[in-house]
Known about the structure:
CATH topology: Rossmann fold
Helix content: 10-25%
CATH class: Alpha Beta
CATH superfamily: P-loop containing nucleotide triphosphate hydrolases
Largest sheet: 4 strands, antiparallel
Strand order of the largest sheet: 2-1-4-5
Amino acid sequence: xxxxxxxxxxxxxxxxxxxxxxxxxxxxxxxxxxxxxxxxxxxxxxxxxxxxxxxxxxxxxxxxxxxxxxxxxxxxxxxxxxxxxxxxxxxxxxxxxxxxxxxxxxxxxxxxxxxxxxxxxxxxxxxxxxxxxxxxxxxxxxxxxxxxxxxxxxxxxxxxxxxxxxxxxxxxxxxxxxxxxxxxxxxxxxxxxxxxxxxxxxxxxxxxxxxxxxxxxxxxxxxxxxxxxxxxxxxxxxxxxxxxxxxxxxxxxxxxxxxxxx
Length: 262
């Protein structure tokens, strides 16, 4: 509703309260990033020990490593959900390691879904857009739901969704904002084969518009590869080994003898 005495904006005009979603790709750089947890009466635990990693705009990178090596902790520090013990995080030309999560402009999709139970799928997708007063939010939700083939889920609540459907909604919520940096934790783990194909196509499509940072464990048979590079570490040594997926794929130096089962 317009305030008395103010004329309505012309059709198609952008008001000061409306902010179009960004699609600008940005680089991501981690420098000597460390996370240490203090413990009463015990020695402190170092979860991430001196990671150095530079990722270019539009590049897809996967963090690989055994359980507990610090992959999710690294993502949470980048997102602003964990404090940084030391080191720096740069997005584009901004140092963001001391900024709150809301000021970093990062899209995040975690394996736990983090959906709002009282809201429908449509409302979950719209929530962040409306909070930021993004122009064309309804159209953005309609577009991502079509691309992920989830139009039939829009009026349902999370309690009525399967685990695979919840994961698609969580991915859609991260993608719909077109953030300059996107962090995904296990984005394909609960999807069936057909849904994985759709999501994989959309992730590659998104990488053409934004800088996508993608985290996953060791790929299981049939999961496919989305990332263009992988960074590997065990959480105990400084730095990360960066590899391209074509190297060692046909003749792996470290074959997986016991695939992870859930």
